[in-house]
Write a structure and sequence with these properties.
- By secondary structure, the protein is mainly beta.
- It contains 2 helices and 11 strands.
- A hairpin with a 3-residue loop joins strand 4 and strand 5.
- The radius of gyration is 16 Å and the shape is globular.
Amino acid sequence: TDGDSKHVHVAVGEFLNIASSVNKVTVAFWQKNESITNSSSFWAETEIYQLNKSVAMQAHVPWGGGRINWHTGGCCDGSSHYISFDSAELDGWPEGLFENGTWHHYAFVKNEDTKEIWIDGKLVQDGINTAALPSDIVYLNIGGNDLGLKSPEGIIDDFAVFASALNESQIVALAGGDRSILPSTQSYPALVSTSP
């Protein structure tokens, strides 16, 4: 995308409530940023909008000059809703992580109260968040916040949501380009709409 309101809106997001039923989810994708902006890579919203409380799950890649945030079950209490990673804190991390136009693989994992952030197959942050995934998720925005704004200046690819907590070997495999745990590609065209 190139600025705000360039996102994919999944209007029927109730399928995400499967993950809520077990309080486990992994959201994985590739993202290539062209510059650092305060952005949301994805945002799942609950049925009843309440400012700072209705976010079911979302991630900033990045926010605030290089900070990656992984929110679930609301916003913005660090003990119950989110974990955060500052990319500047990791020695040997690629220069210009968010602005050099290089692809990176991200995986955001919630396994009941344990949460993890993975970049390129490496665990960079983990923590405890006690808020459960809401069971009334209604839509998902990929490449934007709850209103479809704050789009990353870049590209997102191979976006996948798993109703389970992927383990290290699965995340490393995805980051290495192994697509075997992803659904197979359709060999026929998908009908998107019957109207012009």
